[in-house]
Design a protein that fits this description.
4-stranded antiparallel sheet, 5 helices, alpha+beta, 22% strand, single chain
Length: 250
C-alpha cells in the first residue's frame, strides 16, 4: 500500500529543524519562494527552536578552556591537501573517547531541544483547546438566550454613538449584549458591562468592540444594563460615567 505524500504546507517545522529528507528539502525550499505563509511559519519555528536551545544550554566548565588549550599540542594536525591517496591514520584512543563524548553531548542537547519543543507544542495545544472550549461555551450561552421562547429585546444608543441591543430571557435568567459601531477603546482601557440591582452596579463582563457577548450574572432581579469605559482588566465598581444605562426588557 503506497503512503500518501505529506502536505507541503505541513513541513515547515521539520524544515526549520533541518530534518527533511533530501528528496523533500529542495522541493520545499522552492515552495518557500512562493508561499508567504510557510515562510512566516518557518521563521517562527526557527525562533522557537533557538529560544528552546538557549533555555537548555549550559555554560562550559571554567577549566574547559585550559584543558582544551593544553590538549591542542597533542592533537595531530591535518595533512596538506594532495591528489595522492593517503592511508588514513587511526585516531588514538583518547581522541576517540573525546569524539564519543562530543557525540553524546550533542545527542543530549538535541534530545533536550526536541523534548522542550514537544512540551511547548503540548502546552500551546492545551491553551488553544481551552480557548476553543471557552468560545464554544459563550456561543452556547448566547444561543440559549436568543432561542428562548420568552426572549425579548430592547434597543438603545451609547454616549459615543454606537447602537446597542439587549436580549433577555426570564426563563433562562440570562441576557446578551450586542454593540454596533462601538469605537475602539483607548490603549489601556476596556469596555465593561454592568447589571443594575436597585441602583447598585455589579460587574457583568466585557465587550472588546462590536459583537455579541453573554452578560455575566443572573438577571432575575436586575433592572438595567450599563456600559462604561474602564482600565484594562476591569473595575469592581464603575470609575467613569456610564456610556449606556438601558432598562432590561420587561
Amino acid at each position: 500500500m503506497s503512503r500518501r505524500p505529506p502536505d507541503v504546507h505541513a513541513l515547515g517545522a521539520v524544515y526549520a529543524l533541518n530534518a527533511l529528507d533530501p528528496g523533500e528539502h529542495e522541493p520545499f525550499t522552492a515552495h518557500l519562494a512562493q508561499c508567504e505563509e510557510c515562510r512566516q511559519e518557518v521563521a517562527e519555528f526557527r525562533a522557537t527552536a533557538a529560544r528552546l536551545a538557549a533555555a537548555v544550554a549550559q555554560p562550559p566548565p571554567a577549566a574547559m578552556k585550559e584543558r582544551t588549550m593544553a590538549a591542542v599540542d597533542g592533537v595531530r594536525q591535518l595533512p596538506p591537501r594532495s591528489s595522492i591517496a593517503l592511508t588514513p591514520v587511526p585516531l588514538r584512543c583518547p581522541l576517540r573517547r573525546r569524539a564519543g563524548l562530543l557525540v553524546v553531548a550533542a545527542s543530549v542537547a538535541a534530545a533536550a531541544l526536541f523534548a522542550g519543543l514537544a512540551a511547548w507544542q503540548n502546552q500551546e495545544a492545551r491553551h488553544y483547546e481551552a480557548q476553543v472550549r471557552q468560545t464554544e461555551q459563550r456561543l452556547d450561552d448566547v444561543s440559549a438566550v436568543l432561542a428562548a421562547p420568552d426572549a425579548r429585546a430592547v434597543h438603545g444608543r451609547t454616549g459615543n454613538g454606537a447602537s446597542a441591543t439587549v436580549v433577555s430571557s426570564a426563563l433562562r435568567n440570562k441576557a446578551v449584549f450586542t454593540a454596533g459601531g462601538l469605537p475602539a477603546p483607548a490603549p489601556g482601557t476596556t469596555y465593561q458591562l454592568w447589571l443594575d440591582h436597585e441602583g447598585t452596579l455589579s460587574p457583568a463582563g466585557f465587550i472588546a468592540q462590536d459583537g455579541t457577548v453573554p452578560i455575566d450574572g443572573d438577571t432575575a432581579d436586575a433592572t438595567a444594563v450599563g456600559l462604561t469605559l474602564e482600565p484594562a482588566g476591569g473595575s469592581p465598581q464603575p470609575t467613569t460615567a456610564p456610556l449606556l444605562l438601558m432598562d432590561l426588557p420587561a
